[in-house]
Specification:
The chain is mostly beta strands. The chain is about 5% helix and about 65% strand. Strands 1, 2, 3, 4, 5, 6, 7, 8, 9, 10 and 11 form an 11-stranded antiparallel sheet that branches. Strand 6 (about 70-80) and strand 7 form a beta hairpin. The protein is elongated. The protein starts with a strand and ends in a 6-residue tail after the last strand. Mean pLDDT is about 85; it is low at about 195-198.
Length: about 200
């Protein structure tokens, strides 16, 4: 993707960097997440502030590519201490149609949850997503470990297959709750398709 940006900073009289700020804007391209997969994007913006002991991600905004593509936002921080690194991130999602889940959800990100959701949620829209993630890593970043993950997203007019070949629940309104070890679907209102509906 084409990228433009600005860098500004402060240094001490002996040349040591006190603070470094980066702002950048991207055009259409692909966000490569290495072994986690890749995501097509229409554009994005980034603002980060870096210091010797860490960095603050003030804002990331990614507009994904494709029809009715969603916008993702993120902020967070990375801090270095004697034991290694601690990381915190907050992620947001405006609206995402179920038809695009397979293209926009990288295969390596929560693969178990992805497989179930992509296969079993076949219609509807996810809105107002919000997640919080915490992670730790040793000083050499050789082993990143997610220590906390939680979040929720609202679902409207969804079709959810619970146990095939049982007919799916249609017109589902509810929430999907994400945790470190489980994904929970709360259906607030639904209609189950019967043989007479076909």
């Amino acid at each position: 993707a084409p990228v433009t940006g600005e860098v500004h900073g402060r240094v001490s009289t002996d040349g040591a960097v006190w603070e470094l700020g980066v702002t950048a804007r991207s055009g259409a391209g692909r966000l490569d997440l290495a072994r986690l997969g890749a995501v097509p994007i229409a554009g994005g913006e980034l603002a980060v502030q870096m210091q010797p002991r860490g960095a603050v991600l003030r804002q990331v905004r990614l507009r994904l590519a494709g029809p009715e593509a969603p916008t993702l936002t993120a902020s967070g921080s990375v801090t270095r201490n004697d034991a290694g690194w601690t990381m915190q991130a907050r992620l947001g999602l405006d609206a995402l149609p179920a038809a695009g889940l397979g293209a926009w959800w990288p295969e390596g990100v929560a693969p178990g949850a992805r497989a179930w959701v992509v296969e079993n949620v076949t219609a509807g829209t996810a809105r107002n997503g919000a997640w919080e993630i915490a992670a730790e890593a040793p000083a050499d970043l050789s082993d990143l470990r997610v220590t906390e993950a939680r979040g929720a997203v609202e679902v409207a007019d969804a079709t959810v297959h619970w146990l095939r070949p049982i007919p799916p629940a249609e017109g589902v309104h509810g929430r999907v709750l994400f945790g470190l070890d489980a994904v929970t679907v709360e259906a607030l209102r639904k209609r189950v398709r019967s043989a007479m509906d076909r």
